[in-house]
Amino acid sequence: MFEEQATFEFMTLAFVYVVGVVAIIMVVLGLGLxxxxxxxxxxxxxxxxxxxxATMIAGGGLMLGGYAFWxxxxxxxFGVPDPLRQAISDWWLFGAFMNTPGNRIDPAVLPxxxxxxxxxxxxxxxxxxxxxxxxxxxVERIRSGPLYVMSFVVGAVLSxxxxxxCWGSLSPLTNRGVHDYDGVxxxxxxxxxxxxxxxxxxxxxxxxxxxxxxxxxxxAHAPGLVAIGVLLVLFAKPIISIGSGYIxxxxxxxxxxxxxxxxxxxxxxxxxxxxxxxVVGGIIAHxxxxxxxxxxxPICGLVICGALFDVGRPWECLVLGAAGPLVALGTxxxxxxxxxxxxxxxxxxxxxxxxxxxxxxFFAWGEKTGGYFxxxxxxxxxxxEITPWWQLVGVVTxxxxxxxPALAMALFFERVGGGLRITRELEIAGQDxxxxxxxEPARRDAPVPAPRGSxxxxxxxx
Length: 462
Hints:
mainly alpha
C-alpha cells in the first residue's frame, strides 16, 4: 500500500475527472436530442439506436488500448525506453496500470495513479462524443454496419492519435506552438472533417435540394427538442472545460497545453463566448425566420472560442463568440452551394472550429505553452509560444488525419458489403418500420413549411 497515492488532494482531482466523464455523456445525450428533433419521425428510433451503439463501440475501442497513444507523449518526454510499446504494455485492457488499484502502484513508477486511471474513461467518453458528432452529420442515410466499423477505428486509433498530436502539454505539435484547450482540434475539427467527407460520399437525402418523385424529403418533426439538447450541452460543457487542464495544488490552474490560466478566467471566457453566440444567433434566427439559429447560436460561440478559453480575455471571447453564428451561417450556405447535405456538424463544428483555432493564434500570439514541470530542453516548462502559423499547421494535420481515413473507409464500403448508404426504398419507407418492425404512426407528420427569407431552403437543421 502506498499511502501517498491516496491523499485527499489526489482523491479530489480524481473525482473532478469522474464528474467530467458524466458531463461528456450528457453531451452525447444532448446531441441525441438535437438529432431526435431534426429527423423524420419514421427514423427516430433507428437514429437513437445507431448513435448509442456507435458511441459505445468508439468508447470500447479506446478502452482496449487507445489511451496508450496519449500516454506515448509522456513516455517520450520522460525518457522511457521504447515509449510507444511501453505505453501499450501499461495501458492496454490487460496492462498492469489498468488492472491494479491506484494505492498499490509505486508513485515512483506512476504518480497520481488514480487520476491517470480515471483519465482512461474520460478519454473513452471523449471518443464517444466525437463519434456522436460524426453520426449527427450522416443520420437517416448511412448503413449501420459501415458506421459501426468506422466507430471502432475512430475510438481505437484515430481519436487517440488526434489527442496525441495536439492535445496535451508534451504532444508533438503542442511542443512547437500549437494550442488547444477545449478539444477544438481532436473533437470539433476532427469530427467535422470526418462528417463532411461522409456526407459528400453519401449524397443528399431524398428531396434535400430538389423535389423527389416519391415526395420524400427531410424535415424536422420536433424542433423544440433541439433547444433541450442544446441546454444539456451547455450545462455539461463548463465541467468538461475545467477537466481540460491541470489543477496543481499550491500553484494554480494550467491549460492542457501547460498555459498559465485560472478556473475563474476560464468560466468568464466561457460565459462571454456562449452569451455572445446566443445573442447573434438570435438575431440571425429572426432575420432568417429560422429558429434553429436561436437554439444553436450559443454552441457556435462555445466552439469558436474553445481554444481561447484558457489564454484569452473576456472581451476577446465576446468578440470571437459573436462571430461564431456568422461563420456557421456562411459555412451552411457554402454546403448548400456545393450540394452537400450536411447542415449541422460542418457549420457548427468544422467552420467555427477552424476559424477559432486560427484566431486564437492571433489573440494569444506569444503566449507561453508546452512542456512539463521540472523538465528541461525540448520539453521544458512553457518553452514554446503560440503563433498563428502553428495553429494553421495543427488544423491541416487534423483535417488530413480525419479526412484521409474517412475517404478510404467510405470508398471501401461503397464497393463491398452492400454499400455505404441505405437503399432508396428504405429511405422512403422509413427505417423504424423496415428495420425494427415498428408500426408506422397512424398520422404522419405534416412537412414543416420552408422558412421565408433569403435562405428559405436552409431548414430545420442549421
